[in-house]
Amino acid sequence: MNALLILVDLQRDYLAAPGLQPPAGAVTERAARLLDAFRAAGRPVVHAWTTVDRADDRRMPHWKRLGKWQCVEGTEGHRPPPELQPLDGEPVVHKRFFSAFGTGELDRVLKQLGADTLVLAGVHLHACVRATALDAYERGYRVCIAEDAVASDDPIHAAITRRYLGDRAAEFRPAEFWSGPCDPDPSDISRIQPAVGGATASARTAARDWEGTSPEARVRLLEEWACRIEEDAGMAGAITAETGKPIRHARGEVAATAAQLRAIARRIASEPAPPDEATALVRHRALGVVAVITPWNNPIYIPAGKIGATLAHGNVAVWKPAPAASSVARRLAGHLRAAGAPEGVLGIVTGDRATALALMSDPAVDAVTLTGSSAAGHDAQEICARRNIPLQAELGGNNAAIVWSDADLPAAAAAIAEGAFAMAGQRCTANRRVVVHAASLDAFLELLVEATARLKNGDPMDPGVTIGPLVSRASRDRVDACVARARARGLRIRVPHAEAGEASPSAGAAYHDPTLILADDPRDECVREETFGPVLVVQRAADWDEAIALCNGVEQGLAAALFSRSADLQRAFLAGARAGILKLNISTAGADIDLPFGGWKSSGIGPAEHGASDREFHTRTQTVYR
């Protein structure tokens, strides 16, 4: 196999597109690693650029209609960032429309180089990368797309493109797949369709009987499941060993999981039956088979909440846990079987993103409940909309706390530091940003540095440790790259533990020091993107209008908090904050086990989870007249 890399439209003008996902800094870095790997292995590289000449205006017609001039030859926007600049001898192919094959120039280059496999990276996946992939497929090339080194400003369209190309013309692999010194074996890049049919078929069979069980039987099952989880003395240690979550938080998760299941059971037990004499009644019927897709950061609390609500309302579940928490998942499922769950009411399928896509697409699945990344949510939206089935998705947050000058600043600093850095920031409600009244910024920043330095970082099995490692070295490297890009942009960075003279717990493990980034520009990548790690962005606000605008000024809207003694500001915050969870004088982190949990904007799709919201998603209404 002779593999060749084509970098499509990785030019500054395209990378500056608003709403690019992944953001420009991340996709540039991943593409640069891919480029370095190809160069190191002596594999050929081709750069495909959109090129516009003002003296000979042959722009695409829709650009003319919009009056758009970009990628003009000779401008900075026409060229890629420094790390993606072509080296001498690397061909640059210029194009006018979408496909890199459009002018015939690329055909000539590929013939000279003798390539049979094309690896694509660039922007936009839904447009120029897609068109190039289809043209390459038509010409008989094996087409591979570096799935983490492509970006789009139309993420739903990009999700459609991933499915469409993956079913037909291209294989999607991470950029690191190509980092070896030798060409991968062609059999290693063949597309493997994950097998989920057995689990969904068993679930479909079980669903018919399970919907007919009494509420009392479902309540007994959940209560027994809760008892068995509580009685498992090794569960917390297993969570810590597999995910790196500090043992103190793992123990709290075990207790909260059991309490959550009992709360679901109480709610089912207390639902009143319709009166016999009514001439019409509204029934709440089960959906059937629910696909449950969960992350690793709360490996039993999130799954048990979803599965418990699914079973309580007469549905059955097929669960795809995160690979990083697979052994804990099997342990949790074992407790449900031991509690008396009938065969087939909970099936498990293991695997990666491809398995999740296959599960959601399976015709036996009637609904999907998912907690994951924005990209996972876009994939789920595309599949569920196409199949016309319900979707409930919790997609994380970029949560802000506003700190006003009248607040108890030391208490606010302590709460926000804990909310930002506990569990290395790996929870969806973690404080990602803090918006501080300019009059108090300097004083609050020093209090925040001190409060952060007091949090213990180290061995997660130590009960005194609050922070701990990230789930993997890859996650640590991702966070480190985000901080490095912020430093390269000239942003001010504080590392409290280092300033206090403490060394990182282990240079060889997945630890990353808690880090503060001061970023006043609301357009900056570290402001707009959720790091999901131990990074807290500090923003300055001159007045209340700016503060609430900064709080709301990101795509996500899961949680927000205000630290202020002012009743007027509290009312203004409750009226103006655009998030699903609002808090007063407490951190954004954490939530009650039996209250609705759901985000606004891109943080949530469909009904919220937990509490009274469970029935809204897990059943459909049916009106009966008699």
Commentary on this structure:
- A seven-stranded mixed β-sheet has the order 15-16-17-14-13-19-20, sandwiched between helices. The protein has a six-stranded parallel β-sheet with strand order 3-2-1-4-5-6. It has a six-stranded mixed β-sheet with strand order 10-9-8-11-12-22, sandwiched between helices.
- Helix 8 (215-231) packs antiparallel against helix 10 (247-270) and helix 13 (353-361) runs parallel beside helix 14.
- With 626 residues, the protein is an alpha/beta fold.
- Helix 12 (326-338) links the parallel strand 9 (316-320) and strand 10 (346-348).
Q: What's a concise summary of this model?
A:
The protein is an alpha/beta fold and 626 residues long.
List the helices and strands and how they pair.
Blueprint: E1 3-8, H1 12-15, H2 24-40, E2 45-50, H3 61-66, E3 92-95, H4 105-113, E4 117-123, H5 125-138, E5 142-151, H6 155-168, E6 171-173, H7 197-210, H8 215-231, H9 235-243, H10 247-270, E7 280-286, E8 289-293, H11 301-312, E9 316-320, H12 326-338, E10 346-348, H13 353-361, E11 367-371, H14 374-387, E12 391-394, E13 399-403, H15 409-421, E14 431-437, H16 441-454, H17 473-488, E15 492-494, H18 496-499, E16 515-518, H19 525-528, E17 535-541, H20 544-552, E18 556-557, E19 559-563, H21 567-576, E20 581-584, E21 600-601, E22 604-605, H22 613-618, E23 619-625
Parallel strand pairs: 1-2, 1-4, 2-3, 4-5, 5-6, 8-9, 8-11, 9-10, 11-12, 13-14, 13-19, 14-17, 16-17, 19-20
Antiparallel strand pairs: 7-23, 12-22, 15-16, 18-21
Helix pairs in contact: 5-6, 6-14, 8-10, 8-12, 9-10, 10-11, 13-14, 15-16
